[in-house]
Amino acid sequence: MVLGWSPVVLLALAGGLPENSGMNSFVVRHLKTIEMIGVLMRIFSFSLVSWLGAHSPFLFVWIFNTVDAVMLTWCSTLKRDRAYTLLNAFWILIGIIGILRAGNGLH
């Protein structure tokens, strides 16, 4: 997770901080770059599973995918794009479940 913070905390920060706050202003300044990195991370993680199949490092893939979902949710929240905020927030929740299942924390 980014800086050891949970996705819920990051979403609360993104939604609760004014756009001119330090963290949000950084994201706004670098929005296109952060979005592109998030999209490339998502492509990489799904490609890895497609290529390796059952031999995929699933815990790594779920963590990687959840981090990109946090990044993309933060960007879409700041852009006030409700559809992509909902979609990527959904991926955060699915990612948390995937991390718990891959790490044998949820059966």
Structural commentary:
The chain has helices spanning 7-16, 22-29, 31-52, 58-78, 82-102. The protein has 107 residues and is an all-alpha fold. It has one domain (9-102). The longest helix has 22 residues, at 31-52.
Short characterization:
It is built from five helices and no strands. The protein is an all-alpha fold.
Comma- or semicolon-separated keywords:
5 helices; single chain; mainly alpha; 107 residues; elongated
Based on CA inertia axes, which overall geometry fits?
A: elongated
Structural class: mainly alpha
Mean pLDDT: 85
Q: In total, how many domains does the architecture comprise?
A: 1
- Give me the strand/helix succession: HHHHH
Give the SSE layout.
Layout: H1 7-16, H2 22-29, H3 31-52, H4 58-78, H5 82-102
